[in-house]
Amino acid sequence: MPVYLIGAGPGDPELITLKAVNILNKADVVMYDKLANEKILEHAPNAKLIYVGKKAGEHYKSQDEINKIIVNESKDNPNGNIVRLKGGDPFVFGRGGEEILDLIKENISFKIIPGVTSAIGAPASVGLPITHRAVATSFTVVTGHEDPTKNKKQVKWDYTADTIIVLMGIGNMKENTTEMMKYRDPKTPACVIENGTLENEKIIFGTLENIADKKINTPAILVVGNVVDVFKEIKDRN
Ligand SMILES: C[S@@+](CC[C@H](N)C(=O)[O-])C[C@H]1O[C@@H](n2cnc3c(N)ncnc32)[C@H](O)[C@@H]1O
Fold first, then answer.
1. Does the keyword Kinase apply (predicted)?
2. Mean pLDDT of the residues in the chain
3. E strands within the chain?
C-alpha cells in the first residue's frame, strides 16, 4: 500500500478534500504535526495517531527523525493505510518533498493528496482576491523565516509580483517589511490574516511601513499589495 501524504487544509475542518476524508476513514496509522484543527483526526477513528510535531517542554523532532518514523511505520504495516497528515498543502512550506524523497530511497510507494494552502485559502475565504483585473496580475508566496542553517540566503525581497504573501513571517515582520520597502512604496497596503478560516480569525490592516507595529498572533499570513484595497471594498459585504 502507498503512504498517503495528505493536505489537511488551512484550519476550518470542512476545508479538506473528499479524497482525503475517504483515505482517513480507513487509515491504520496517522502521523500528524501541529494542525490548525485537530477535529480532522475524527475522520480516522480506527487509526493509531502519532504526533510528530512540537510539544511544550519536549525535544523537537528533527525532519530526519520524522522521516524515519514515516519509513518505519510503513515498513511495519506494509498492508496498512499509512497517512502523513499536514496542515494546508503538503508541498507549500510543508517539507513534503523531503519526506517523499526518503520514501523513494526506501522503495516505498506514495500518493499525494493536495490540500487548500493557507497562502491562498485564508485570503480567499475572507474575500481578499490575490489577483484582480487591472490591480494584480501575479502573486508570490514566500517564507518570512528562512532556515538559518542554509549556506546561502534565497529570499531577497525584490520580487516583482503585484501581490506578496508571506508565510511564517510574524516573528521577522519588521526585518521583512524593511527589506520590502527597498523595492516597494512604504504606503503599499498590507494586511495580516490571523487564524485564517478558524473561529478566532482576525484581520489586521496597515501599510508596509506600519503593519509590523501591530499586535499579531500566530498562525498568520501577511498580504502586501494593492489588492488589499480591493479587499476593503469587499470585506464588509462578505
Ligand atoms: C510551516 S508553514 C505550513 C504551511 C502549510 N503547508 C500551508 O499550505 O498552509 C506554517 C505557516 O502557514 C501559515 N498558516 C497556516 N495556517 C494558517 C491559518 N489558519 N491562518 C493564517 N496563516 C496560517 C502561517 O504563516 C504559518 O506560519
1. no
2. 93
3. 3-7, 29-32, 48-51, 82-86, 110-113, 139-143, 163-167, 189-194, 202-207, 220-224
Model pLDDT for residues 16-74, shown as the tens digit of each residue: 999 999 999 999 999 998 876 789 999 999 999 999 986 655 667 788 888 899 899 99
Would you name the residues annotated as active-site residues? 33, 54, 168
Q: How far is the CA of 146 from the centre of ligand 1 (A)?
A: 15
Specify the CATH number of the domain 118-235.
3.30.950.10
- Cis preceding linkage at 219, omega within 30: yes
Q: Report the C-alpha gap between 63 and 36 in whole angstroms.
A: 19
3-state secondary structure of 212: helix
Rounded CA separation 68/74 (Å) = 10
Q: What is the pLDDT of residues 112-169, one digit of tens each?
A: 999 999 999 999 999 999 999 999 999 999 999 988 888 888 998 999 999 999 999 9
Contact between residue 70 and residue 31 where contact means Cβ atoms under 8 Å apart:
yes
Question: What share of the chain in percent tops pLDDT 70?
Answer: 96
Using only the alpha carbons of the chain, give its radius of gyration. 19
CB 96 within 8 A of CB 121: no
Q: What is the pLDDT of residues 155-168, one digit of tens each?
A: 989 999 999 999 99
Q: Which atom of ligand 1 is nearest to the CA of 116?
A: 8
Q: Which residues line ligand 1 (CB under 6 A)?
A: 10-11, 36, 86-89, 92-94, 117-119, 122, 167-168, 193, 195-198, 218-221
| Topology annotation, domain 3-113 | Cobalt-precorrin-4 Transmethylase; domain 1 (3.40.1010)
* Domain edges within the chain: 3-113, 118-235
